[in-house]
UniProtKB/TrEMBL annotation:
The keyword Transmembrane helix applies. Residues 7-81 form the Sodium symporter small subunit domain. InterPro entries: Na_symporter_ssu. It holds the Pfam family DUF4212. Keywords: Membrane, Transmembrane, Transmembrane helix. This is DUF4212 domain-containing protein. The lineage of its organism: Bacteria, Pseudomonadati, Pseudomonadota, Betaproteobacteria, Burkholderiales. The chain crosses the membrane at residues 15-36, 48-69. NCBIfam families: Na_symport_sm.
Length: 85
């Protein structure tokens, strides 16, 4: 099956947003958690490293999932590949 230019654009946008969100996930999971020990301040009454590991990362993960679903729904509608409800 030959891919049209519209299909290529769809997959290019899909791969781009996936790469960006995976980069954010990586930074939150490894970057912030690793360097949080060096950030010696309290955040909402808890040490920042503890808060980031216990609450902050989970909040970011939920936001990433919500944003990806929202973005892909819009992209599906834009390219005419949305599922019928």
């Amino acid at each position: 099956m030959q891919l049209t230019e519209k299909h290529r654009q769809y997959w290019q946008k899909n791969l781009r947003i996936t790469a960006v969100l995976l980069a954010i996930w990586f930074v939150v999971t490894y970057g912030v958690a690793f360097y949080a020990r060096d950030l010696n301040f309290t955040f909402f009454g808890w040490p920042f490293s503890f808060w980031m590991a216990a609450q902050g990362a989970l909040i970011v993960y939920v936001v990433i999932i919500w944003f990806y679903a929202h973005y892909m729904n819009k992209l599906d509608l834009e390219h005419g590949v949305a599922e019928e409800e």
